[in-house]
Amino acid sequence: MTGTTTTRTRRAVAGLVVLGALGSGAGVLTAPAHASGGDDDRVVRTGSCSGAASWKLKAKTDDGRLEVEGEVDSNRTGQTWEWTIRSNGDVVARGTSRTAGRSGSFSVERKIRNAAGPDQLVFRASKNGGGDTCVGRLTF
Predict the structure, then answer these.
(1) Could you report the per-residue pLDDT of 103-125, keeping only the tens digit for each?
(2) Given 1, 38, 74, 135, which residue has the most CB atoms within 10 angstroms?
(3) Within this chain, do residues 50 and 13 fall inside the same structural domain, yes or no?
(4) Both 22 and 36 in a single domain?
């Protein structure tokens, strides 16, 4: 191998090692939070619900506010779910959504106040009729 090929190979292996380390967090994927705004300024968490569904919670800055998105994927179309979004313990949004599409999922997105310091965000969704509860948390 030439010196350039060896360097490229080492860089590729190092990149895969970093990606593997990031993805090994037991169902949790995290991107660093930055104060600058934009698409690189986001935090994402994923996890399993109490039943067969899974959840995703995302947050990023948008024009001085926080854009928060909660998603539930149950693989079952037509289910009704009640959900809330909390910021630092206060309910900032709530509603009812129905799973749809081929994936049997729903998502809700809200822009909320960006408090001084870290924001503790919680997305909670419960399937009507019981059987599944999802709780996602992140700090932004």
Answers:
(1) 999 999 999 999 999 999 999 99
(2) 74
(3) no
(4) no
